[in-house]
Amino acid sequence: MERNQILAEVQEIFRDVLDNEEIELLDATTADDIEEWDSLTHIQLIVAIEKHFKIKFTSKEILSWQNIGQMIDCIASK
C-alpha cells in the first residue's frame, strides 16, 4: 500500500474517532495541532488504526512517534 493511501485512510480514522470532518493530516501533524486529540482519544485512535490495518503496535513504537509521518512510516513497515 502506498504511503499516500495510508495517510488518507488514517485521516478518515481520525475524522471518525474525533468526530471532526475538518481534520487534515500532514506528516508534521502532532497532538498539539488537533484540539480533540488528547490521551484518551490517542488510545482510541491507536485501537482503530490497528483494527483497520489488521496490525499491532508495540508500546515502544507508539512512544517513539513524534508526529503523524512517523506513525505512517510505522504502518507502512508492517
Q: In total, how many domains does the architecture comprise? A: 1
The low-confidence parts are none
Radius of gyration: 11 Å
Total beta-strand segments:
0
At the first level of CATH, the class is Mainly Alpha
Outline the structure in words.
- With 78 residues, this protein is mainly α.
- It has a single domain, classed as Orthogonal Bundle (Non-ribosomal Peptide Synthetase Peptidyl Carrier Protein, Chain A), CATH 1.10.1200.10.
- The protein is 60% helix and 0% strand.
- The chain contains four helices and no strands.
Can you summarize this structure?
This protein has 78 residues and is an all-alpha fold. It is built from four helices and no strands.
What key phrases describe this protein's structure?
Non-ribosomal Peptide Synthetase Peptidyl Carrier Protein, Chain A; mainly alpha
